[in-house]
User: Which sequence fits this backbone?
């Protein structure tokens, strides 16, 4: 005779609320404003708009997709570097958002 397993209570999924610090509108620097626009926006939106720009102008390195090649507009944001990893991009963005 098969034994019945006790059913575990189903946990209700809680919806995550975004952190207020993430959603706080920040003003982009002049260099960053050329890429993402001049009005204040949350850090998450700034990152999204950067990726839209990078993909539009095909600035992702073809061999190593983690690297972003800087064009004339991105170079001042990336501290004058020709190439930055996608992980370092957030660090450079934070310096250009106040």
Assistant:
């Amino acid at each position: 005779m098969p034994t019945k397993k006790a059913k575990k209570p189903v946990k209700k999924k809680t919806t995550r609320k975004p952190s207020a610090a993430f959603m706080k509108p920040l003003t982009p620097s002049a260099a960053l404003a050329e890429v993402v626009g001049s009005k204040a926006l949350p850090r998450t939106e700034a990152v999204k708009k950067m990726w839209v720009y990078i993909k539009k102008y095909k600035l992702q390195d073809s061999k190593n997709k983690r690297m972003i090649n800087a064009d004339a507009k991105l170079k001042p944001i990336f501290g004058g570097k020709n190439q930055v990893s996608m992980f370092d991009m957030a660090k450079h963005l934070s310096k250009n958002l106040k």
About this structure: DSSP finds four helices and two strands in the chain. The chain has a mean pLDDT of 89.
